[in-house]
Amino acid sequence: MTADLSAFPITRRWPPRDPQAIQLYSLATPNGVKVSIALEETGLPYDAHLVDFDRKDQFTPEFLSLAPNNKIPAILDPHGPGGQPLALFESGAILIYLAEKTGQLLPEARRYDVLQWLMFQMGGVGPMFGQLGFFHHFAGKEIADPRPKERYRAEVERLLKVLDAAMDDREWITGDYSIADIAICPWLRTLRDFYRAADIAGWDRLRNVPGWLDRFLARPAVQRGLLQPAR
Predict the structure, then answer these.
(1) Angle at the Cα of 148 from the Cα atoms of 144 and 151, rounded to 5 degrees
(2) Domain named GST C-terminal: which ranges (predicted)?
(3) Is the bond into 146 cis (omega within 30 degrees of 0)?
């Protein structure tokens, strides 16, 4: 059955190229690529639409109709539960949905282990890495008071130590590759390669995290997902 997505205002600004595929509204940020990587890993067909922050796309009525918090990523699945279209925002929720939809990346035997590390990323890694990035790489570096940057630098260093200890004798954060790796590793990449803040957060003293990130970035699906949506 052909899905009808015309009731969703977002499709008027970003018309589906393939109405039967999952519609992804995103940008290649650490949160955005979580979902494109998961889609590539699971093999689900998707139609990636660029939400351009330079044009303030995230504040348009069409985007807000799907993602009221004006944050990417968001998806519209024409074949959601019960065969009905499903609109979803928040990257963590989307990762869980895609894993449950496909039966991949969330092994039942380690389900709650995966979910706890996913929440660790959402509540700790993302917000703290982002704040350090603001004070080290963006406009925050112009603030003379050193205390805000040092607060976030110290917390990022602590979080990295937690991850490094958890990765002892493991290839992936819960043993099996999962949505937890997909959630955390894009933030590690951003800290190291975009914010260029790894050196001030003790990266060179980590035993396991650098190799984990390298394994992640070597995956073909990850390499494809990092490029979506194309500019």
Answers:
(1) 140
(2) 107-231
(3) no
Q: What percent of the chain has pLDDT over 90?
A: 93
154 and 63, same structural domain? no
What digits encode the pLDDT tens for the residues 55-103?
999 999 999 999 999 999 999 999 999 999 999 999 999 999 999 999 9
Model pLDDT, residue 3: 78
Domain holding 187: CATH number? 1.20.1050.10
The answer to whether 107 and 181 have CB atoms below 8 angstroms apart is no
Which residues make beta-bridge pairs with 88?
A: 75
147-166 and 209-217 helices, crossing angle to 10°: 80
Report whether 33 contacts 45 (CB < 8 A): no
Calpha distance 179→193 (Å, rounded): 22
Please tell me whether residues 84 and 114 are part of one structural domain.
Answer: no
pTM of the model: 0.96
Domain count, the chain: 2
Among 76, 105, 134, the domain-final residue is 105
Task: Decide: helix, strand or coil at residue 48.
Answer: strand
pLDDT tens column, 107-150: 999 999 999 999 999 999 999 999 999 999 988 778 888 899 99
- What's the CA gap between 129 and 190, in Å, rounded? 9
Domain range for 210 is: 108-221
